[in-house]
Specification:
Layout: H1 5-8, H2 10-16, H3 21-31, H4 44-49, H5 55-68, H6 115-124
Helix pairs in contact: 2-5
Length: 135
């Protein structure tokens, strides 16, 4: 199938991870542009809700995240960077040009040069204030 044995083991892995490792894993899955062998994105949402996990297993993962990924206090300033895909991470290429029509980069699914580094840098400024994670 499309999903690896590792994806099926996600609930057990999340429960076994240390409290410090869960936020790091969550951040890596949700913000480092992780891809499957077939080229599709592998983020936490897709692993929890699209990998045919039983409802009980989904709840185990979500509860572990809730327990370990605490939001920063009101006294800690911060910001959220939202980033869409078309014409932000990679050149748009649809027939109606709704996603844009940038032809300065190859239209082969490659990300714009430097976009991964840009997002890492935007996240990186707050790392020390949140114990190396602030997701």
């Amino acid at each position: 199938g499309r999903y690896s044995p590792l994806a099926a083991a996600l609930p057990s892995l999340f429960v076994q991870m240390s409290a410090e490792a869960v936020p790091r894993c969550r951040a890596a899955l949700d913000s480092h542009l992780v891809f499957r062998k077939d080229g599709s994105a592998a983020d936490l949402r897709s692993l929890v809700f699209e990998c045919e996990l039983a409802t009980e297993q989904q709840h185990r993962v979500l509860e572990r995240i809730r327990q370990t990924c605490l939001p920063p206090g009101d006294d800690q300033p911060g910001f959220v960077v939202l980033c869409d895909v078309d014409d932000t991470l990679l050149p748009g290429a649809d027939l109606l040009k709704i996603a844009g029509s940038d032809r300065s980069c190859p239209q082969d699914g490659r990300l714009y040069p430097g976009v991964t580094r840009l997002l890492q840098e935007l996240r990186g400024g707050l790392r020390s204030a949140y114990g190396d994670d602030y997701t």
